[in-house]
Inverse folding.
């Protein structure tokens, strides 16, 4: 496993994102709130984190839900996975949505999402008149069955 250096500016009063275990692929990131934020069922909000990143152009940072928050409270990241591009320098914000049937309150310093850094492959799109055939063909959603 190789490590990449990613620069971080933290304007948060909380710990920087970190891996919670040696085998974790995501770093937990915390909410920075002046007051608790209550999300009604199906309500969404952009939650600030107080962090700013600078990474190599070969990386992206994906924002993913925390499984425990999703299971226990029904809170997830709305645009999963969210992408933080290498050239973005603004504050990392997390779009949370409450999919439960009850109000859910997010508090300052709560771990609300995880950040996963991934390699990015750039491609050249080549305009053609038709594509080669494949076993699947044009079969779309559910075309391969469920069992």
């Amino acid at each position: 496993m190789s490590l990449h250096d990613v620069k971080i500016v933290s304007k948060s009063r909380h710990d920087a994102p970190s891996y919670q275990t040696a085998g974790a692929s995501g770093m937990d990131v915390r909410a920075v709130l002046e007051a608790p934020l209550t999300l009604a069922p199906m309500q969404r909000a952009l939650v600030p984190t107080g962090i700013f990143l600078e990474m190599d152009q070969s990386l992206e940072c994906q924002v993913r839900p925390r499984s425990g928050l999703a299971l226990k409270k029904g809170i997830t990241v709305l645009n999963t996975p969210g992408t933080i591009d290498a050239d973005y320098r603004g504050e990392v914000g997390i779009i949370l949505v409450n999919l439960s049937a009850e109000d859910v309150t997010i508090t300052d310093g709560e771990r609300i999402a995880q950040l996963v850094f991934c390699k990015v492959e750039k491609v050249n799109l080549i305009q053609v008149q038709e594509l080669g055939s494949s076993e699947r063909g044009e079969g779309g959603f559910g075309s391969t069955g469920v069992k």
Q: What stands out?
A: The CA atoms of residues 81 and 139 lie 25 Å apart. Helices lie at 67-73. The chain has one domain: 7-119. The chain has a mean pLDDT of 94.
